[in-house]
Specification:
By secondary structure, the chain is of the alpha/beta class. It has 2 domains: 4-118 and 244-312, 3-Layer(aba) Sandwich (D-Maltodextrin-Binding Protein, domain 2), CATH 3.40.190; 121-217, D-Maltodextrin-Binding Protein, domain 2, CATH 3.40.190.10. 41% of the residues lie in helices and 18% in strands. The strands form 3 sheets. The chain has a 6-stranded mixed β-sheet with strand order 2-1-3-10-4-11, with helices on both faces. Helix 6 links the parallel strand 6 and strand 7 (174-177). 45% of the residues are buried.
Length: 317
Amino acid sequence: MRSISTILGLAFASLALGQGYPNQPIRLISPWPPGGSVDITARLVADPMASALGGKIYIENRAGASGNIGMEAAARSKPDGYTLVINTIPLVTNMSLFDKLTWDPLRDFTAVGMVSTSPHLLVVPPKSAAHSVAELLTLARANPGKLTYASAGVGTTFHFCAEMFKDDTHTYILHVPYRGGGPALQDTLGGQVDMSFPNLAAALPHVKAGTLRALAITSRKRSPLLPDVPTLDESGLKGFEFTQWQAVLAPAGTSPEIVARLNAALNAALHNRDLLQKFEAQAMEPLVATPDETRRFVAAELERYTRVIKARKITAE
């Protein structure tokens, strides 16, 4: 991803085109319920993006079917720049998880830009015998199928992060899916399962309190929030990276001039000091990108997750 100054310079150069836009409120669809990570991100970015754009943006929650209801609504909307959608990893996993998906992340959408990224943690209960990734792998390999990990459900980021970990380490660790991240984290705290891969924001208070032990972080670099926790790459899983990212898209056919205005406003918002402080409180980092960089990122992630889903034989519940 390029520096924000370079991207803003390129984007604002095209703002003279389509100066009449926007002349009505813009709908930003969150295909998830209120209070979730996507919804929180949408609400954090909407106001500074609207201010940079010189218009208004409101959030519409269209939850259901693992994000498919909201994504279909966005895909079928008029490509006039007044409907956007924000989504995370299900944007690229649902094609492989659902047989009759009515939308395609590349065919039916135009990339506007990236928003944020946040890592996950590999955590174990405080009474675990594992104090490092190496020790955990020794336990897993000595007891194939006996260790367990909790997830927030099939197809969630918890689940995919763990399956990528298993794929890279060639270990057999039993998946225990829960109905949401809260219950999964609670049973990890209580020791009912041996490990979990929650996002950093959810796990951080428990790690700080000593009620969870963090063995590694899933990003390519350490987090300033937990500077003593090594990355999985540092722990022997060379090249391992898993982050929960967010991207904004518009319906396919939206004009390049409008996309350029939206991208410029989004990237200006990601330079807003107040927003950056709010992101930090959520253990998120801004991810600045052009529309083309965003499309290439989504395409690469689509290929990556398709491979994992097929290799691990993951199916939707």
